[in-house]
Structure formats: C-alpha cells, structure tokens
Specification:
AAA+_ATPase; Rossmann fold; 30% helix; nucleotide-binding; globular; alpha/beta; binds magnesium ion; binds adenosine-5'-diphosphate; 7 helices; six-stranded mixed sheet
Length: 229
C-alpha cells in the first residue's frame, strides 16, 4: 500500500528552480493498476521515480507498506527496491556491456536462486516477450522496440510485488504494445500492483484508475469500470 501526502519535488539548477511535483496526495491499494497521464514535462516520470525510491521528495510524506520512506538514505532506498520493485524505464537503461539474458537476469541476483532456476526464469520472460532469439545479443544490436521489451523482461523477471512502468509501450507498434499490456494485466491479476505512465488512451483503459497530471499537480482521477482483483 502506497500513501503519498503533500509531496513536493523541486529540481534546482544554477539558474532555475523547477517544481516538478506540487502537493501530491495519492493512495494506491495493493493489487491496483494505475495509469498516469498528462502532457510532456508535467511530472509523470518524477512521480514514478519518487514512488520507485529512485528520487527523494523535497517535502511531504511517503508511506510504503506502513514505513515512512520519504527521508530514507540512498542505501536504504536501494535495499528496499531490491527484488520488490520492478522498473521499466522510459529510455531503457540497459547495460551495453551485458547481453540481453545478462541484463534480464540482473534483478535475480538479489534472490536466493541457483543457476538453473535463474536461467529458467530468464527464458520464461524471453519467450513471453518473444525475444528469445536475441538472448545473446547486446543492447546496441537491437531496435528500440526490442530494447523496450528487454527492459520489460528485466522489470518483471523477479515477480516484484510493485511494477512501475514509464511509457512501457512508447517504442512498440500497436500489436506488440497490446501484448505488453496483456502481460501487465496478467501480472496484475496474479497480485502485482502496477503504476504505469502512458500517453495512450488504449493502455489507460487496462487500468483500474487513471490519474491526470498537469504542471506537477493531480488534476483528475477517473475510475475505469474494471473490477479490482
Ligand atoms: P514528464 O515525465 O511528465 O515528461 P518529468 O517528470 O520528466 O516530466 O519532468 C517534470 C519537470 O521537472 C520538467 O520541467 C523537467 O524539466 C524537470 N526535471 C525532471 N528531472 C529533472 C532533473 N533531474 N533536473 C532538473 N529538472 C528536472
Ligand atoms: Mg517522462
């Protein structure tokens, strides 16, 4: 369960101060699937990064499963993320020196698994996202859409209970995008909480609730007619 109370986030550079998040109040129940929408620059990625413990808020409270984590140090945030939070990054963040399989296996390093179980889990997601034939390739040998799918494989391979996805279908054609949304829906039905940033109304229709941001503020929240599992 995620509770954000009066969250503000400022970015300061030498000349300008930007307020990326303004007074965000948001509760997300376990097992919910949330879509975040809004124009470019309105704070969607910043909100996801705060929820995913990649950024600290400048002020406000963040309760994650009952713990106040807003002021956690980097090392505490890293520990909490391990194996628990799967992140699909807007610009992939794949490691160029590692193969597709090795990139996907990274989150499994935190789990107590033997080598063959690790391999099995990697193969399962490779198959599921139809990228097995690229398992030994390096990220720069792949198209944007393929890199996106590798990023999604890495985010879900450890069965995290919280999946955060920043425009997961942004680089995919309509058919591949639909497959990714079906995968996210299936993981949600199996119990994962999902928070996804999207520009696509089609993707947003898969969510229980759609939150619109404008200029760092939540302006609307709309419930879709989908039952919470
Ligand atoms: P979105 O994902 O909705 O496009 P972002 O959350 O990336 O928006 O950015 C929100 C605002 O914060 C923008 O004005 C952006 O320029 C600014 N911003 C985001 N990250 C940083 C950063 N690391 N340093 C300075 N400004 C930032
Ligand atoms: Mg963004």
């Amino acid at each position: 369960m995620i509770i954000l109370k009066q969250i503000n986030k400022f970015f300061e550079t030498e000349e300008v101060q930007t307020q990326a998040l303004k007074n965000i109040n948001l509760e997300v129940q376990e097992g919910e699937f949330i879509a975040i929408m809004g124009p470019s620059g309105c704070g969607k990625s910043t909100l996801l990064n705060v929820i995913g413990l990649l950024e600290s808020p400048s002020s406000g409270n963040y309760l994650l499963d009952g713990d106040e984590v807003a002021n956690f140090k980097e090392s505490q945030r890293t520990n909490l993320r391990k194996g628990n939070i799967g992140f699909v990054f807007q610009n992939f963040h794949l490691i160029n020196q590692l193969t597709v399989s090795e990139n996907i296996a990274l989150p499994l390093a935190y789990l107590d698994l033997n080598k063959s179980d690790r391999k099995k889990k990697v193969e399962e997601v490779l198959d599921r996202l139809k990228i097995s034939h690229r398992r030994d390739h390096y990220p720069q040998q792949l198209s944007g859409g393929q890199q996106q799918r590798v990023g999604i494989c890495r985010a879900v391979v450890s069965n995290p209970k919280l999946i955060l996805a920043d425009e997961p279908t942004g680089n995919l054609d309509s058919k591949n995008g639909k497959e990714v949304m079906e995968l996210l829906t299936e993981l949600n039905k199996q119990g994962a909480t999902i928070i996804m940033v999207t520009h696509s109304q089609r993707d947003a229709n898969y969510a229980h609730r759609v939150i619109s941001l404008l200029d760092g503020e939540i302006v609307t929240e709309v419930e879709n007619e989908i039952e919470l599992f």
